[in-house]
Write a structure and sequence with these properties.
- It is a single chain.
- With 310 residues, the chain is mainly alpha-helical.
- The chain has one domain.
- Helices cover 80% and strands 1% of the residues.
- The chain has 13 helices and two strands, in the order αααααβαααααααβα.
- Strands 1-2 form a two-stranded antiparallel sheet.
- α1 runs antiparallel to α9.
- The protein is globular, with a radius of gyration of 19 Å.
- Keywords: Membrane, Transmembrane, Transmembrane helix.
- Its main location: membrane.
- It is a multi-pass membrane protein.
- It is found in: Endomembrane system.
Length: 310
């Protein structure tokens, strides 16, 4: 049992390190390959690897109910988040983005409670509001008095990915941990082939080696293997225990931005990152109560049904 916990913690830590390198890798790759290749092309590359693994393992197809949840995961983790962060990294420093993405665990917890039919406590809302205000003030301060488009993209990315994570966490209990992101990748990839193909150019062949390494890292590690380590860690070490490692992510991102991109970090950035992480810790660990009204979120799945049918 102790060995499983240690393995789970190690896998979870590896997963967090991998996720923390996503923004720096995106920042390096975007100038040479463009937003479409970096944002969507990574999924196409990952889908080839996933397809080979599924053929070897002879994975069974998900049922209709599971497909509804997989669409939600795919829209968030495979489409919206890569595109929005790619767009944001064209104009924002990684250390800036790290503070905004620090709200992701709080957003995930909120959506998870909502999907579980639980009522969010006052403490959760207070922590969420303080964290959000801190992020917005920091964004406006760095934007010289106004919110930049990249900031809006990252905030939307946090909300969409939070829902995707919550849905994926719920689905992983019946479908399997890494299979959730794997199926989501296969669902999304076919829609990306044409735009990715139209965005390819011979100029990309002149991209430096660090740009190619960054693109392959995003496709193979950030989009797939990092999820394998993360979900595998939570299954062995426990969701609550391993999930605490998410608090390290903003600081790791900031550290990697200094190490690989040469960004300068101010004390204000560190202090605000600490404030946001404290808000996340308080908000994630608040008592919740079941809603009095019966509501099982069928509306969300009905919307997905309409999307699939159309």
């Amino acid at each position: 049992m102790k060995n499983n916990t240690k393995k789970g913690m190690l896998l979870g830590f590896i997963g967090i390190i991998c996720f923390s390198l996503t923004l720096p890798a995106t920042s390096i790759a975007v100038p040479y390959f463009g937003g479409i290749i970096v944002g969507l092309g990574r999924t196409v590359i990952a889908a080839i690897i996933v397809g080979i693994i599924f053929i070897i393992k002879k994975e069974k197809l998900p049922n209709k109910e599971q497909m509804k949840s997989l669409w939600i995961v795919a829209i968030g983790a495979v489409l919206a988040f890569p595109l929005l962060t790619t767009f944001a990294m064209k104009s924002l420093p990684v250390s800036h983005g790290a503070i905004e993405l620090a709200l992701l665990p709080l957003a995930t917890a909120g959506f998870a409670m909502w999907r579980g039919g639980e009522r969010l406590s006052k403490r959760y809302w207070i922590a969420s509001i303080i964290g959000a205000i801190t992020v917005l003030l920091y964004a406006v301060y760095l934007g010289l008095g106004q919110l930049q488009k990249g900031d809006i993209a990252l905030i939307v990315a946090v909300l969409i990915l939070g829902l995707s994570y919550a849905e994926g966490g719920k689905l992983s209990k019946e479908l399997g941990s890494w299979q959730v992101i794997a199926w989501a990748i296969l669902i999304g990839a076919p829609f990306f082939v044409i735009p990715v193909g139209l965005s390819l150019s011979f100029d990309m062949l002149r991209a430096p080696i660090e740009a190619w390494i960054s693109l392959l890292y995003l496709a193979i590690v950030s989009q797939f293997l990092a999820y394998v380590a993360w979900y595998g860690g939570m299954s062995l070490g426990g969701i609550a225990r391993v999930g605490q490692m998410q608090y390290l992510q903003p600081f790791l991102m900031i550290g990697f931005s200094v190490l690989f991109l040469g960004e300068s970090i101010t004390w204000l950035t560190i202090v605000l990152a600490i404030i946001v992480v404290i808000c996340v810790i308080i908000g994630k660990h608040t008592p919740v109560a079941k809603k009095e009204t019966h509501y099982d979120n069928r509306v969300l799945h009905e919307k997905v049904d309409e999307f699939i049918d159309s």
